[in-house]
Amino acid sequence: MRIVVFGASGRIGSMVVKQGLVQGHQVTAVVREAGRLDVRADRLDVVVADPFDVEAVAKVVAGHDAVLSALGPRAGGRSDVCGRAATTITEAMRRAGVVRLLVVSASGPFVDGGDDPLTRFVVKPIVQRILRESFADLVAAEKTVRGSGLEWTIVRPSRLTDKPATGRERRSLDRNLSFGMFTPRAAVAGEMLRNLDDPATVGHTIALAR
């Protein structure tokens, strides 16, 4: 498939790029600054573009089969990156006629019946207070994606780690995972790519954890 990856120089995004190339996809990696992505391949195009510029993003995504966003706030940076980018990317996709969208979010801002009591009543309330701005940004981004009219899938990992994926990570559709405390970034990248052409995940969230 021909895929566009936003946040391609980040820790999840770069793994999406690398794994996508291994799987044989034609990858367009969108970065904010030249030279930030240290990957070279015949099926890779690296594009410098502002993810908040609708016209620029529409030009990038045109002609592709799917868009994957691994964008997130930089440490000490703006707290509205995900929400603003979601607005831009979804509008640009509609203009370009591209409908498949996969987005990384997080399980932290959301509580449901899948959470174990410790997570629901102790861990998440504490984390939600500490990360209230970042979580508010993710909630806003998800609201935009859900209302976009596109064929979206949202991946919600638990706390991210740099440990290798084991292939034994658990996943749940539209429901959090009990005792799902950690998720390898490599597993998040793999989950996004795995669901590229899976119609069963369109219009759903996927909780992911070890």
Automatic annotation (TrEMBL):
GO molecular function, one term: biliverdin reductase [NAD(P)H] activity
Any Pfam family hit: NAD_binding_10
InterPro entries with a match to the protein in the record: NAD(P)-bd_dom, NAD(P)-bd_dom_sf, Polyketide_Oxido-like
Superkingdom as given in the UniProt entry: Bacteria
SUPFAM superfamilies: NAD(P)-binding Rossmann-fold domains
NAD(P)-binding domain ranges (all copies): 7-199
Protein name: Putative NADH-flavin reductase
The species this protein was found in: Paractinoplanes atraurantiacus
